[in-house]
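User: Run a structure prediction on this.
Assistant: Running it now.
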Amino acid sequence: MVMPWPKTTPGLGTNASRFAEMVEKMSGGRLTMTVYGAGELVPAFESLDAVQTGTADIMHATPYYWAGKSPAMHFFTTTPFGLTAEELAGWLYKGDGMALWREAYEPFGVIPFYAGNSRIQAGGWFNKEINGLADLSGLKMRIAGLGGEVLRRLGVNTVLIAPGEITPALMAGTVDAAEWVGPWNDRAFGLQRAARYYYVPAFHEPGAGLELTVNRNSFEALPEDLQAIVEAAAAAITTETVADFAYNNIVSFQPLLDEGVELRFWPDDVVEALGRTTWEVMADLAASDPMAAKVGASVDRYLVDCDRYAQAFDKRLFDMRTRALAAG
């Protein structure tokens, strides 16, 4: 197994190893995996190539890292102002998301399994305040996915740096800002020592989907019971991963602030520009690739329903809970 992050990365590398342990135990030792972190067998961003060619049998990753092969990959991780963790899981398991994902991956000879979600991410770490749209111009930022294209159109110089290299790059001034995941992972990577201002939430990652993707030939060579074990272990690690991120981001948030981090929220003019530019980027994405257009149409239909429901239920519940806690 290969992955684009270090094996010790909380919730990511650690749960990839946990998945391998599950498979070994469930199979009574008939199916075992050697787990390699980023750079140990192949470079971080060559994980899919390794699985595709058979250098590795399986990877733990996130699909938008492979958008250069197919722009449709973005939708299976996240899109700006897109699906939350719960909404993405619903689309994959109960809508047509999983069928579309497997169709998108079919040309590469691999089969994806859902492996959980980071839930709502942080917007990023900055060494200067963003008080308005003009402050984005000329900024050099590490950011992944379509959020990078949105910011690029707003004047940001965006770069993609492998996860294990983010903190050194920010400390060295190679970048002025960087996003990674959220309080749990960001604190583990020491990002609070590399930048002062922490902007939340992430407009670009309302919930990042993860994958366990296997070489088709390797998977089909397994007997049916071992195939079922791989699928069951992926489902189990999905639940564990979502719980990991939900709990650990919450309990890591205040300790992160206690280290002197200054929490910031996006100014109104920045939010408006991000939203306007996002829909331009999404339209261009659909026009660039038939598969991206097909997947995007499915997500767009569902997203309208998601927002209608969230406005009536989620948003009002959170507002009511805040008032109730204040009253107590």
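The chain has a mean pLDDT of 98.
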